Structure formats: C-alpha cells, structure tokens
Amino acid sequence: MSRRKGFAVLLCTLAFSAALFTAVAQEHAHWTYEGEEGPSHWGELEAEFALCSTGTTQSPIDIELNVGVNIDDIAFDYAGSALNILNNGHTIQVNYDAGSSITYGDVKYDLVQFHFHTPSEHTVAHEAAPMEVHFVHRSESGALAVVGVMLTEGETANAAYAAVFDHLPAEESEATTMDAQVTALDMLPETRTFFTYAGSLTTPPCSEGVRWLLLDTPVQLSAEQIEAFKAIFELNARPVQPQNARDVIHDTGSGS
Ligand SMILES: [Zn+2]
Question: Is 90 a catalytic residue?
C-alpha cells in the first residue's frame, strides 16, 4: 500500500469512527426517515451503508414479552455533565462530559452521548412508546453498548429532562454548551431490569456488534415536553427489523 493510500484509509477510518461516535454522518450521503432516502433505501445510498439492508442483526426490533431470568445487573457509575446540546439534523443529542460509565458483563463502557427518537424505535409486544432515549456508551476497545429507555406521557413535567427539553435547538447546529447541567442517572427509571440482545446502530451506517440494554420500566415526560421534541422532529424512528436467530434475554431481577 502506498503511503498516500494508507493515509486516505486512515482518514476514512477516522471519519467512520467519528460518525459512529457522534452519530453525525456529515461525511456521508444524506438520509431521512421518509421517502426516497428513507429507511428502506438506506442500504442503497452508499456502499458504507450496505449493512442497513444486508445486515442480519439489525436494530431496532420488536420485543416479545417472555419469561424472565436473573442475569448480571448493569452497574451505572454516572456523574453529572454540562449540557452540551446539538441538533444533528436527525435528532437532538447531548454530548456527555467524560467521567461517566456503565459496567456490563465485566466490560466498562463510557457514556459518550444521549439522544432521542419519536416514536420509540423498539416496540414491546408491537406497542411503540411516544419517545425513546438512547444513552450511547463506548468501551476502550471501541465496542458500543446502548441503554434505551421508553418515554411515555405522564401528568407532570419531568425535572430530570427539563434542562434538555428547555434548550432543544430547533435548527441544525454544532454542539453548544449551555449554562445548565444534566444528570443522566436521574433520567433513568428507579427499576433497572432490562431486555438485552445483540443489534446495530439504528441510523446509517447501521454498524452491527452493538450491545442493546433496553430498560423495561418507562420514564414519564409531560405532554408539553413530548410536543416540544415533536415540533422539531415529527418522526425519527427506524422501523423494527427482523429478529432472525437472535435471543432476547429479559432480566427481571427475580433471582430465579
Ligand atoms: Zn438512537
């Protein structure tokens, strides 16, 4: 390989990592949630998106309610973060300050960012929630683990989400650090039993090898909070994908 070609490959790899890392795909083909650049066409938009159509362990999926088992907990070691918020054209994302992580299956994954979808991408027994939040984590070796939480409508505004929902950037933007704090731990339900399966990014390039940890207890937002997001993104959820030969394990923490 020539030095020049080697450098180009390195740049490509860096660009790909950056895209994975931030879910911003500015280097890539334009894609959308509806129409000719919508989910059923993502795999054709460019070579790097091929897995979106050829992958066999894609996300999201429908989760069947089934018999639970008791497996290892997710150990959350979350600190607070400044509110570094952006609209990447596909969602609202908060880049999380360094120093927060989860440990699951003896692997430590650092919390990198969280972002939102409406309606929820995963469905449970074919039912979607109004929204879903994804906490994206990355291990030292580059493996991804995403903690998903279903967001449903309740009576009152959720204070843990207020800083985010009070600062939603309506237009596509670079990350901006606001004079506000977020505490990811407070954004989770108190009960943290979960479904887990091996899946993918739900946006192009749909890379596989993502460990999904979908908490089975929803968190409530007010109708106004949900509407504030929907006013910017009416629909930004990939449809459910075939489960194929994958197992979905339901940790119910029952000790059985
Ligand atoms: Zn997501």
Answer: yes
